[in-house]
Amino acid sequence: MEKKSVFNKIILILCFIALLINAVETNQIRLQTKLQAQETLLQKFMYKFPVDVKFAQKVINENNLEFTIKDKNIAEKISAPFAKVSYNIWGESYRENRYYSAKDENNRLVYVSLNVKSLYNKKADFDDLVKTKIIYADKYEFDCFSIKTTKDKTDFTSSISLMPLQSQDVYLVAEMPKDFVNTKNSLVLEMFIDNTKYTVKLR
C-alpha cells in the first residue's frame, strides 16, 4: 500500500509539472502573437509616412541595411557586364553573352540597380532584410525579385546573402506588361526595411 501511495504521489507531481509547462508555453504563444500584432500595427502606421529617396543618395536603416540607388532602366533583358569564355570540343575558345530576360515576350523588365551594405549583426539573406515592389499609375502593384551578377560578372544569380558589413551590387526587378511601361504613367519603387517604407520615383 505504501509503495502504491508513493507511486500515486509521483504521478500527481508529474501531472502538475506537465500542466505548469503547458501553461507557460500557452502564455508564451499568446505573448508572441500579441507582440507580432503590435509590430504589424506599428508597421502599418509607419508606412503611412514614407521616406522619399533620390538617386545617388546614401540611405542608412540602422542595424539593417545601407543602400544607394544607382540607376534604373526598362528593357527586354538585362545583360551581364562581361562575356563568358567557353570552349568547344576542339578546345577553341568562344565568347558567350549571358542575360536575364522577361519570361513573357509581351512583358518588359523594369529594374533598379543599387549598392547595398548589410548592417545586420549576422549573415542574412537580402530578401529577408528588404521587401520591394513597383507601383504603376499609383494603383497597380508588381512584386520585385532580386538578382546579382556572379563573382566573375558573366552571369546572374538570385542567391544573395550578406555577411555583416558586406557590400554588394543588386538588381531589383519587376516584370510588367510592355503596354504599361510604354506610357507616361508614374512608376514608383517601394522598399520596406524593418518599420520604414522608402519610395523612389522612377518616372
Overview features:
203 residues, alpha+beta, Immunoglobulin-like, six-stranded antiparallel sheet, five-stranded mixed sheet, 3 helices, extended
What is shown here, in short?
The chain is α+β, with helices and mostly antiparallel strands.
Name the strands of the widest sheet in spatial order. 2-3-8-15-12-13
CATH topology of the largest domain: Immunoglobulin-like
Strand and helix order = HEEEEEEEEEHEEEEEEHEE
CATH architecture classification of the largest domain: Sandwich
C-alpha termini separation: 87 Å
What structural category do the secondary elements indicate?
Answer: alpha+beta
Low-confidence region ranges: 34-39
Query: Which class of the largest domain in CATH terms?
Result: Mainly Beta
The global form is extended
Describe this structure in words.
The chain folds into two domains: 1-46; 51-201, Immunoglobulin-like (Sandwich), CATH 2.60.40. 26% of the residues lie in helices and 43% in strands. The protein is built from three helices and 17 strands. The chain has a six-stranded antiparallel sheet. A hairpin with a 6-residue loop joins strand 12 (145-149) and strand 13. The chain starts with a helix and ends with a strand.
What's the SSE blueprint?
Layout: H1 2-46, E1 51-52, E2 58-61, E3 65-75, E4 77-79, E5 84-87, E6 93-96, E7 99-101, E8 107-118, E9 124-125, H2 126-129, E10 131-136, E11 140-143, E12 145-149, E13 156-157, E14 161-162, E15 167-177, H3 178-181, E16 187-193, E17 196-201
Parallel strand pairs: 1-17
Antiparallel strand pairs: 2-3, 3-8, 4-7, 5-6, 8-15, 9-14, 10-11, 10-16, 12-13, 12-15, 16-17
